[in-house]
Write a structure and sequence with these properties.
The complex is a heterodimer of chains A (366) and B (414).
Chain A (H helix, E strand, L loop, with lengths): L6 H17 L2 H8 L7 H10 L18 H14 L5 H15 L2 H12 L5 E4 L13 E3 L5 E9 L6 E8 L2 E8 L5 E5 L9 E9 L2 E5 L2 H36 L1 E2 L2 E2 L4 H30 L6 H22 L12 H13 L4 H13 L3
Parallel strand pairs in A: 1-4
Antiparallel strand pairs in A: 2-3, 3-7, 4-5, 5-8, 6-7, 9-10
Helix pairs in contact in A: 1-4, 4-7, 5-6, 5-7, 7-8, 7-9, 7-10, 8-9, 9-10, 9-11
Chain B lengths: L2 H15 L6 H11 L17 H13 L11 H11 L2 H13 L4 E4 L15 E5 L2 E9 L9 E7 L10 E7 L5 E5 L10 E10 L4 E2 L5 H17 L14 H13 L6 H4 L6 H8 L5 H29 L8 H24 L15 H8 L10 H12 L21
The complex binds flavin-adenine dinucleotide (FAD).
The site of flavin-adenine dinucleotide has 18 residues of chain B, from α13.
Chain lengths: 366, 414
Amino acid sequence: MQTEFSKEQNLLRDVVSRALRDKSPATAVRELMATDRGYDPAVWQELCGDAGLAGVHVPEVHGGAGGGAVELGIVAEEMGRTLFCGPWFASAVMAGTALLEAANESDREELLPGVADGSTIATLVLDDLDDPAGVGGSITAAANGTLTGAASMAVDAHVADLLLVVASGTGGLGLHAVEGGASGLAIEPLQVVDPTRKLSRVAFTGVPGRHIGEVTGDILNRIWDRICSALAHEMMGGAQHLFETTVSYTKERFQFGRPIGSFQALKHRCADLLLEIEIARALTHHSARCLDSGEGEPCAASMAKAAAADAYMSAARAGIQLRGGIGFTWENDTHLWFKRSKGSEVLFGTPAIHRERMMTMLEGAA
Amino acid sequence: MIPDRIRQEVSAWLDANWRVDRPLIEWREILLEGGWAAPHWPEEWYGRGFTLDQTAVVAEVFRERDAVPAAQVGPRGLASETILACGSDDQKRRFLRPILTGEHTWCQLFSEPGSGSDLAGLSTRAEMKNGKWTINGQKVWNTSAHHADFGLLVARTDWDVPKHQGISYFLLDMRQAGVEARPLRQMNGHQSFNEVFMTNAVVPPEDLIGGEGNGWHVAKTTLSFERRGFSRRVRGSSIDGPKQGPIYEEYEEELRIAAEPYTWYPQREGRVDLVLPRARETGAINDPATRQEIAKLICLYTGARLASDGAEARRKAGTTEIIPAGSIGKLAASVIARQASHVHTMISGADAALSGPDSAADGIIAEVLVSVPAISIAGGTDEIQRNIISERVLGMPKGYRADQGPFRDIKRNA
Ligand SMILES: Cc1cc2nc3c(=O)[nH]c(=O)nc-3n(C[C@H](O)[C@H](O)[C@H](O)COP(=O)(O)OP(=O)(O)OC[C@H]3O[C@@H](n4cnc5c(N)ncnc54)[C@H](O)[C@@H]3O)c2cc1C
């Protein structure tokens, strides 16, 4: 198994990082998070249409760059660092992964190229965002393919041209393709803690859909693992940004005639945070390498999601605390990352759920 | 060289040279001449310039073949690495060989009653008298000093310069009238460390290492090797199971004495390896709260190992970033040991109140619970590692200092 990034992978990171610094500064994040749509179509076209960021993990035959979880993770990490606002996570990571793992070959051929070049905005609708074991209870597919039921939360469904819905039918769970404007589809935007990632409630009342693949328990777990690994990368990018800006703030802010970074209470908190982040980042990068090589711990993605979520929240709490009053203002940018951290901690399983999932994989259920 | 080639070479060499009926020292001499005693050392000093990974392959073959390796237990390693890095050719010639053959054991005479974390605040005195360095003062917490032949000694040679500049580093012969080591009993019942009194002890001028006034630099070299040792897994230095042959008897005897102070060291690291077996055996593996804590431990342990491998790889690739792997690894080892101790307590429940042969794992778990507090003190406390990380890696500003100017004028313990 690979243990370091290759030259090409480092190059990819540089390119993505530069593009996002340019296209997703905090001012843009603030502007977009206040809109209903939540993203800028021109930037979307540049990053996904021109630069191909939605297809890094899609095979070349389907219009992608032919990378894997490592490349997807690199892009996610840089997106998380700048709090990129847009349906990349929903479309490339969630829907793209579902198509790659579950769709029949002909459906992949038809649907993946649009996702890979950003011309289709897709999302994956699951009726449980806590635990894969809970998926499938609330949306059913009739024999004629129509869907009925609801998902209480879906990521970026409000802008999706294509919804991939996991629903239970006569033959078990299946993946169903639904068009964005389909009749009987009700998408109701929700108020969220993290306004940089939009969530909506999605209700289906006899919505026409097309069955495009089986979703066995194994397949669902594979999809879940890949999404969690990518999300862990996104979180580590955010954690790193918060950590760096917080440490530099402690060097600039003076109290009692000295920089606050010279106070040992703050130094030790930063040293502990560095250790927590180093460990979580190592687990996160490892999870992608495990997915790509098929080797390593089967629970690698759960370890990564649990550790990354805890480290991001630690960085977010310290980011506010070490700035004092200014850190608690709307004006200061720190809360944007704090809220993304909270939102990401709970999506696709809290750290506690992932630790239990890990133990179940290692030792069986309790 | 690739691992397979190394394997072949070591195996062929062992076929030709390894025999269980040789006296131990004679075997080690052959080992030195062959260049397999310390393969990561340079060629002119018994080595082959191997990387640590390549050296690990050699050690693996030795283990598979039950071949006795060069002496490596305890502060010997600190002594040899320090002498190799900072010593004169004459010192390397005189000291390295008997360390590797096992003829000499060493101890580290750094801490004093008045200066531990603040090592540079030490006040053991070294003065040049009649052509020799004369040493007066007291050291403390010195592991293995009660049976060491030599000590790595830091002492003050100049009291009129700032504290870091007045220190010199000596190689002290412990077998002399002016040196007395008294064992101290630790909270876990073992007697590994000592207090050491030096009364007009002498060191010949050729056993000053690194030059007069340059002791702080040499001491930092020793400390960086020591801290790295915490994050590396302690490799089994003993050969498992009874082995037939005279050389094994000599080797077991060496380990029994030299390794005795270290029998509890795996326990101070928390015995992560016993967590899952104990949890299964007791049924605690089915308790949701315990499962959460075990999972946290596994994440910490796995992540710290991956992070240290990654840092090692980046160092080899010639990175320019500052990686004080020793300090980060040592702090990680403390965090892991504490979490393991916490998990062992949850697993044992009320049985954690027992110790000795009647208790869990033949007393090992009880020993974990009362040994883990050492790991965050020995080799530089957690607080000191956090100071190092925040100042050197993160570049956070140093705080107010009350210890500048001539050492003579600094406030010290009475
Ligand atoms: C098992 C064991 C084996 C050892 N073996 C050896 C050996 O072989 N040779 C040897 O020379 N020494 C040895 N030591 C000694 C060890 O290095 C010292 O105990 C250690 O460096 C701490 O020094 P101290 O005991 O004087 O505590 P102090 O330095 O007095 O520390 C007391 C407390 O104050 C804190 N503190 C001190 N300075 C600071 C600061 N600047 N910022 C924040 N907090 C601070 C410390 O972290 C600690 O919590 C050993 C110790 C142990 C426990």
